[in-house]
Amino acid sequence: MAAEESGGWKTRAAPVQVREADLPSSLPPQTGLTFNIWYNKWSQGYSGDARFVNPYKLEPELHAGTTRGDKQGQIYFCIYFSKGMCCMGKKCEYLHHVPDDEDVARLVMKSEVLDCFGREKFAQYREDMGGVGSFRKKNRTLYVGGLLGALNNKTLKPAQVESRIRFVFGKLGQIDRIRYIESKNCAFVKFKHQTNAEFAKESMSNQTLLIPSDKEWDHRREGTGLLVKWANDDPNPAARRMEEEEAKRESLKAMLQLLERQDANAKHALEDANEDKNEQRGKILSSEVLEKLKKRKLASPPASEKPAVALVAYSSSDEE
After folding, report:
1. Where in the cell is it found (predicted)?
2. Class for domain 9-33+43-242, per CATH?
3. Count of CB atoms within 10 A of residue 251's CB?
């Protein structure tokens, strides 16, 4: 399901994904240099022979909704929401929905140095192609590795694996194309917008590819999570030029759509203002007419008094 097809979130408040009391609090034995409280894991060191599976998962159709950030005009997204583990819900200062075309346009017009979560990008990619990314080039393609482990070694045909990838990643934005390489146990997922690639990279890292209808679902945490990184450039110069031109066209198109939407909103606001003015003018005119009629009525004597005056005048002439 593409992001723009799931706009029902605008009619409801964002729910709490995880209670604060349920977030991990105890530290496991140290196996690295840096501890990540959100994943309850050590990094930058030996962490076992396999990647863990994140116990939390974003379900856009259930978790998306309006937040305090929407009311305040926020344009950046909650990174914890993308991972399925925000404990703030509607009180969150950031956005809780999958980025759509309007979000993409606002982010492009705001800054290309920050990603969709408001984090500062770097001039160069990290050596492992992880992290926030680079502001020097647009990248809409993700490398997705460890597919077999993320399926708990479930046997599927290549077309089924590609369909599974399209199903889970397609919830996070419109996909241009997917390339599954069975021999290397990996795939490349290219989104229509870089913003959705940024969002999906955080959302799908260390996730399972199993779905609730799989018999292996209850044992999904015994598998290994997906390895999601930025894809390297295509070495073909022609392909690289085409990619850059396509990215520029998409950015321009998104900005034009936002400007058109803003113009339409301004036009509707002006029409509503004119209608209110005409309605108010009609009320004022009506009150003025009523006031004049009231004064005219008070100035002229009641019809019942006129015959009495005529009778008195007649009687006086008779007495003389």
Report:
1. Nucleus
2. alpha beta
3. 19
Distance CA 320, CA 315 (A): 9
Q: How many Cβ atoms are within 10 Å of 102's Cβ, its own excluded?
A: 15
Helix axes 101-110, 194-204, angle to 10 degrees: 110
* 83 within 8 A of 111, measured Cβ to Cβ: no
Q: How far is CA 40 from CA 37, 49, 147, 240, in A?
A: 5, 17, 23, 39
At 318, is the pLDDT very low, low, confident or very high (cuts 50, 70, 90)? Answer: very low
Helices within the chain (DSSP H only)? 60-63, 68-71, 79-82, 101-110, 147-150, 158-170, 194-204, 237-299, 306-319
| Per-domain residue ranges of the chain | 9-33+43-242
Instruction: Give the single-character DSSP code of 29.
Output: P
Residue 182 identity (one-letter amino acid):
E
Instruction: For residue range 126-174, list pLDDT tens digits in order.
Output: 999 999 999 988 899 999 999 999 999 999 999 999 999 999 999 999 9
Instruction: Give the chain's length.
Output: 320
